[in-house]
Amino acid sequence: MGAVKRGASNIQWIETYCRIPEGKFVGQPVRLRPWQRKIIRGIYDSPTRRAIVSYGRKNAKTTLAGFLLLLHLCGPEARRNSQLFSAAQSRDQAAILFALAAKIVRMSPDLSSVVAVRETGKVLACPELGTLYRALSAEASTAMGLSPVFTVHDELGQVRGPRSLLYDALETAAGAQEEPLTIVISTQAPSDNDLLSILIDDAKAQHDPRTKLFMWSAPMDIDPFCKKAMKAANPALGDFLNLREVEEQAAAAKRMPARESSYRNLVLNQRISQQSPFIPAAIWKACGSRPLEAAFKSVPVVMGLDLSARHDLTALVYCAQFENEWHVRAEFFAPGDGVSDRSVRDRVPYDLWARDGYLTLTPGKSVDYEFVAVRLAELCGDYEVAGIRFDRWRMDVLQAELTRIGVTLPLVPHGQGFKDMSPALDTVESELMNGRVRHGNNPILTWCAANAIVDSDPAGNRKLNKMKSTGRIDGLVALAMAMAGGVAVEDSFVSGRLMIV
Description:
Distance between the termini: 93 Å
Structural class: alpha/beta
Oligomer: single chain
Mean pLDDT: 88
Largest sheet: 8 strands, mixed
Number of domains: 3
Number of helices: 19
CATH architecture of the largest domain: 2-Layer Sandwich
Low-confidence stretches: 493-501
């Protein structure tokens, strides 16, 4: 009989000495599944410099990395006095692999007799062999001067852009070793330009035979909510990954489109941004009918005003509920000076929008709020305006202009936090999904809707996040405030107006 290959020897060691650290089989001896064995054989039965392991969440990626780590710390792959590291983008993520490996050690009498666990420094050590493992977070300076023989990059898909200082520092530090091994273990990154995507594409092209790719991902052209898609990205589905839970996540993503991208990235392991637009393009487009002038003349009108920075975009959205539909109009203001340069910088046609009447350019390098004040006064003269909801930021400047021209308007402050924006966003989402909005495909409002990203708190409340969005979202902020005001008018139908002078 021939000699036992490294892969088989390592599988045997894991199943002999390791215990399952978490889940319904916690504490039981490890019985590696065929797909896990395939990964281990693929790494160790032929020369490997780098292995990329990628599939959906909760398929025990990090637990598998913990088994491989212990192979190199105190198992058959251990090299005397060697350094082992894991790297992650946050301290919390960095602690996960350490915690799992520590649990495996503590549950095994054999491993706990030879491995010391040092919680404070997130360190595992095998004194007899002189091997040491430490968890690192994304602080590149902590990786300088190291010489790792084994490195795990945990959830590298969280790196945005093509570079990570920590990744580069550890990979270049491994150059002093004879046969260093890097394990990248992660769900996919959202874009082609992110570091993990670049590594995966390079592995697919087979430029370096020592780079191995083990990836489970649902095809992009498949129904994302079918069981076949779930199985394609989740090798443990129906085993230690609860099928019912995954099906419920799929149902929730199908029912609430704002969750679809996150589901497809994290569960189906597709290269798609988790930060999906708040309103999917298809739903927005379906509500593109032209609003009726009769609507604004027949019922009270509610406005939303987002002043933004004076050199950026100011958004004014007004809507009227008429015959069970929301009729929406939007107007935008921007400084006239430098509009061509800003069109190039932001890669959007401000100049063309101004030419076509969608954008009002005010003289100078910043938005002249006098133009905004005068336009608000005009609209309040044309329509019965029940309220103008506004973000308090920079409202004092507009109020000064209103006072100067002698105009008093029904101004109503609207908070931008979870408390006030969550119900507003619920209204916008619900009414759009049910096709009860007519926004006329205003190109600037459509652009703002496509850019909008939401944040959620632990209770599930939502608000718009301007920092995460890839472009201006002022128009959607104004729309959410206007529709929230419309709901308040409909619910209470209070006569009179709240005025802030």
